UniProtKB/TrEMBL annotation:
Classification lineage: Bacteria, Bacillati, Actinomycetota, Actinomycetes, Kitasatosporales
Pfam families named in the record: ABC_tran
UniProt protein name: ABC transporter ATP-binding protein
InterPro entries, per database record: AAA+_ATPase, ABC_transporter-like_ATP-bd, ABC_transporter_ATP-binding, P-loop_NTPase
Cross-referenced Gene3D superfamilies: P-loop containing nucleotide triphosphate hydrolases
Keyword line: Antibiotic resistance, ATP-binding, Nucleotide-binding, Transport
A molecular function GO annotation: ATP binding
Highest taxon listed in the record's lineage: Bacteria
Sequence similarity: Belongs to the ABC transporter superfamily.
Length: 344
């Protein structure tokens, strides 16, 4: 059985990316990305659409070759260490006409398992992902969330040292999301290194993961949630208007993003009265008001100038940091007020 739990030389990360660059024609998908993931560490890989997350996952899994740099898994070039990693890509890779058990047994054999190990391992991965009762059901008859759990289970059959999950909760319900997060945490507690890409900040917070932020192919931040909030701290008051935001003279940094004014302040809720007073008559055109307390969302705003969830149109996704709604026009009841809760 190709299980590999031999200890690595002390200090060798399970995943080591050094100076990774990748272009598709004129598009720079990744530029000089270096990242380590240690045994038992979960890294939440975040970035807006097109930031390079899937490219990074594919390179890490050895499915793509970087133009520059090196990918090492457990101290070896990835080409020699593929058996040590498991990848659950964004697109489902299971066979709908087969049952869950048939899928898992098929992929277990592909991964090199034989005889009783195939069935034992199938049962082992099915149980924590809540698939035991579904083993004899055809995948085609399962819900989207159940199918995604099967897809994730496939990546685990050979007990990888490194698990790559590319948006594992895309389109799944809240229960499946919670179950997956618990499962990933338990897995990491047994020593598996996990790289987890997602569009939902709340998941990264629930995973208690370190955070790696990609922006236009560059790794612009890496650290624990607490570290990032400390170094890119402060919160925001976000005010949306009909038409261009009014001028406001304020003692805090102000950015103007179309119809939205953002004011960065250490204690945004305390800054609010002064901000509203400075807007004067402009408040009559106010349609939405959002206080973003120091959190992963405020870190994102600071690093990229954009809300993380603002471009995410998945109906199944939770809003990690409070509503991201921006009404089309003024509400009859006045501006909508929301608050982003601090997580760190
Ligand atoms: N096969 C390809 N050919 C050409 N360009 C590509 C290809 N795959 C990705 N790209 C481009 O490379 C950049 C990074 O894409 P990638 O899919 O890695 O981003 P992502 O962060 O995973 O995005 P998303 O969150 O939308 O899945 C984007 O500009 C994308 O358009």
């Amino acid at each position: 059985m190709p299980t590999d739990r031999a200890p690595d030389p002390a200090g060798t990360p399970v995943l080591s990316l050094r100076g990774i660059g990748k272009r598709y024609g004129d598009t720079v998908a990744l530029h000089d990305v270096s990242l380590d993931i240690a045994e038992g560490e979960i890294v939440g890989l975040l970035g807006h659409n097109g930031a390079g997350k899937s490219t990074l996952m594919s390179l890490t899994a050895g499915l793509l070759r970087p133009d520059t740099g090196q990918v090492q898994v457990c101290g070896e070039p990835v080409a020699r260490a593929r058996h040590r990693l498991g990848l659950a890509p964004q697109d489902l890779g299971v066979y709908p006409p087969l049952t869950v058990r048939q899928n898992l047994c098929f992929f277990a054999e592909l991964a090199g398992l034989r005889g009783r190990d195939v069935h034992r391992r199938t049962d082992d991965v099915a149980e924590p992902l809540g698939l035991t009762a579904l083993l004899d059901r055809r995948v085609a008859r399962l819900s989207g969330g159940e199918q995604r759990r099967v897809h994730t289970a496939v990546a685990l059959l050979h007990r990888p040292r490194l698990l790559l999950l590319d948006e594992p909760t895309a389109g799944v319900d809240v229960e499946t999301r919670t179950r997956l997060i618990d499962f990933v945490r338990d897995l990491a507690a047994t020593g598996t290194a996990v790289c987890y890409s997602t569009h939902y900040l709340a998941e990264v917070e629930a995973l208690d993961a370190d955070v790696a932020v990609l922006d236009h192919g560059r790794l612009i931040a890496k650290g624990s949630l607490q570290e990032l909030v400390r170094s890119h701290g402060g919160g925001w008051v976000e005010l949306t208007f009909t038409g261009a935001p009014p001028e406001a003279r304020l003692p805090w940094p102000v950015t103007d993003d179309g119809d939205t004014l953002r004011v960065r302040a250490d204690q945004p809720h305390l800054a609010l009265p002064e901000i509203l007073a400075a807007l004067g008559d402009g408040t009559s055109r106010l349609t939405n008001l959002n206080v973003v307390r120091p959190s992963l969302e405020s870190v994102f705003l600071h690093l990229t100038g954009r809300r993380y969830t603002a471009q995410d149109d998945s109906p199944a996704g939770p809003s990690s940091t409070g509503p991201r709604d921006t009404p089309d026009g003024p509400s009859a009841d006045g501006p909508r007020t929301t608050e982003t809760v601090p997580h760190a």
